[in-house]
Design goal:
Layout (H helix, E strand, L loop, with lengths): L11 H55 L4 H32 L2 H8 L20 H10 L2 H34 L3 H15 L4 H4 L5
Helix pairs in contact: 1-2, 2-4, 5-6
Length: 209
């Protein structure tokens, strides 16, 4: 009662069964991979979330110190901060999942056996809580134009002081090795300040953001 043979001589029914088993194995393998990735990311989540929470706490503390906000506006900003962290984490999980799926299996297996978390473009501004729409839109809505100007002026002033301090430290270290004249030190200071301003914000604003 066999069906007509396939061209390669294998009964067609048998060929169909083999094909079905192969497809089922592929589906099971993909499901297992998805489960493994989910389990790994759940283990990694806390390590990724903690620094994002800390960044937002610093941002809120900065606003609290520089601005005199009423309790209602401060509460609304805190809620927006939590929403921004949640949004950033959700996007992190999406990026990490996509990267792990496309990764070489051997490398992926090695990575997922570690206890260390996985960081995927975590330092990009748009992936940080302060770069998320939930936070940016709240800041635009809750803070006044005057509030934002005060924040900008205060942060710009601190950055300028930081540039000057870094330049002085750099000149002092170079002076130990080279021995500058007073005139050379005076000329170097503004040059180094300009160089400092070309550094990425995350290297300059380490204590602020």
């Amino acid at each position: 009662d066999l069906l007509p043979d396939a061209q390669d001589g294998v009964p067609l029914r048998h060929a169909i069964e083999v094909s079905c088993r192969a497809k089922a194995a592929i589906v099971a393998s993909k499901k297992q991979l998805a489960d493994d990735i989910t389990e790994y990311l759940n283990r990694s989540e806390e390590q990724v979330r903690v620094p994002l929470d800390q960044m937002m706490e610093v941002e809120l503390a900065d606003i609290t110190v520089l601005l005199s906000l009423d309790e209602g506006r401060l509460t609304a900003l805190k809620a927006a901060g939590k929403a921004a962290v949640t949004s950033a984490m959700k996007d992190w999980k999406r990026r990490a999942t996509d990267m792990l799926i496309r990764m070489d299996p051997t490398r992926r297996d090695m990575l997922m056996t570690r206890e260390a978390g996985i960081y995927v473009d975590t330092n990009k501004e748009e992936n940080l809580p302060r770069g998320r729409p939930e936070w940016k839109d709240a800041v635009k809505t809750i803070l006044t134009a005057e509030d934002n100007q005060r924040l900008t002026n205060a942060r710009d002033g601190r950055r300028q002081h930081r540039f000057e301090a870094i330049a002085r430290i750099a000149i002092a270290e170079l002076d130990k090795r080279v021995g500058f004249t007073s005139a050379q030190r005076v000329r170097l200071a503004p040059l180094l300040e300009v160089a400092m301003k070309k550094l990425p914000d995350r290297l300059v604003d380490y204590d602020e953001r």
